[in-house]
Amino acid sequence: MVFGAVERLMALRYLRSRRQESFISVIAVISLLGIALGVATLIIVMAVMNGFREELLGRILGVNGHLTVYAGSSDGIDDYAGLSERLRRLADVENVTPQVQGQVMVLAEGRANGAMVRGVSAEALAARPLIADALTDIDLAGFAETDGVVVGIRMANSLGLQVGDRITLVSPEMNRTAFGSVPRMKAYPVAGFFEVGMFEYDSSFVYMPLELAQTFFRLPNSVNAIEVMVADPDRVAQVRRAIQQEMTQAYRLVDWQTANSSFFNAVQVERNVMFLILSLIILVAAFNILSGQYMLVKGKGRDIAILRTMGAPRGLVLRVFFMSGAAVGLFGTLAGLVLGLVFIDNITVIQDWVESLADTQVFNPEIYFLTKLPAVIDWGEVGQVVAMALALSFLAPIVPAWQAARLDPVEALRYE
């Protein structure tokens, strides 16, 4: 073995607290805790950032299409049935949803809220499990037969809506009358609610049957958007080129990567910056190991000299002091790994406990878009964090151990 039993015994003995070396032992404990907290924090933050991105991506792509074909004019897409059928035959295309989209103002009981109306068929809604499973007080059969609308639960709460209440949708497009132009508006009953768990959608989206939306937005035989879902969202660029070849008119194509590029780039930048900043905790702990080992070598000069005069080779001295420093990093890294994984496994319970203890909402959905703190473990990243912590912990005691091995016994014992 590289490290013998005598070397391991001496290295662990040097880590024990003694009255003369209690300060050195305190530094070792602080170093161990620093590495443990640094590793745990890095694992937790990276898991939360991964979960945040995955949850956002899942909800964004669960509500919106991977790629959307928009009408080039206010007349809409007349031959949407034929175009939809051609798009369905393309490779990698899983689902095609013709719909009517439009911005409106929602009025109810003297209160107002901006909203995005989407008119879809019940069959198209069934193909979006994130929305279909989030319906309350109404099912898909009821949605197909209703002459009302389904609103997000947070919009309903802000406007004080209940099932059966009537809301007025006000379109920015004007109606021309004998008295001038007036906003187009129409009242609809609230047939139900939905909650997808993303604040932006739950507070600003309204769904209604396709025929009602076509009537309200004056597109009786057409739609103004066709959403396309593909098998692999990361291959949307290839599907986009195939769709462009199928289009005979100047329609506008927008894919999810283009529509959300700035948002996900910001998330990636924040993730990289957080990794860099939190890595400094481990680096500081490694410097604590370095300083602690320097102090240990200085305090053990007589012991080193006696070992050398007894015939101990330089390699033995080097390995003893290397092990005493590396053991701190090893145990600290393992403790941090266990702490981080346990924290992630119970992150929802911890979030609820902190919120109840502080009597406040520590994860505001208006800021973070999600209602629950997500966490997804990437074992490759966990391995990188552990490898980085071990590398820093093993590099830190090398120089003090090398100086201990080079110590001259005569100089060390001269003043003893």
Give the SSE map:
Layout: H1 5-15, H2 22-63, E1 67-70, H3 80-88, E2 93-108, E3 111-120, H4 122-126, H5 129-132, E4 135-136, H6 140-145, E5 149-152, H7 153-159, E6 166-177, E7 180-194, H8 199-204, E8 205-209, H9 210-216, E9 225-230, H10 236-246, E10 252-255, H11 256-259, H12 261-299, H13 301-309, H14 314-345, H15 347-358, H16 365-368, H17 379-395, H18 398-405, H19 409-413
Parallel strand pairs: 3-8, 5-7
Antiparallel strand pairs: 1-9, 1-10, 2-3, 2-6, 2-9, 4-7, 5-8, 6-7
Helix pairs in contact: 1-14, 2-12, 2-14, 2-17, 12-14, 12-17, 12-18, 14-17, 14-18
How does this model look, in words?
- With 416 residues, the chain is α+β, with helices and mostly antiparallel strands.
- 57% of the residues lie in helices and 19% in strands.
- The chain has a six-stranded mixed beta barrel.
- A hairpin with a 2-residue loop joins strand 2 (93-108) and strand 3.
- Helix 1 crosses helix 14 (314-345) and helix 12 (261-299) packs antiparallel against helix 14.
- The mean pLDDT is 83.
The coarse silhouette is: elongated
| Beta strands, count | 10
Counting DSSP H or I runs of 4 or more residues, the number of helices is 19
Portion in helices: 55-70%
Mean pLDDT: 83
Poorly predicted runs? none
Distance between the termini: 35 Å
Helix-strand pattern, N to C?
Answer: HHEHEEHHEHEHEEHEHEHEHHHHHHHHH
Within the largest sheet, what's the order of strands? 2-3-8-5-7-6
Q: Rg to the nearest angstrom?
A: 32 Å
Proportion of beta-strand residues = 15-25%
* Helix/strand/pairing category: alpha+beta
Summarize the biggest pleated sheet. Answer: 6 strands, mixed, barrel
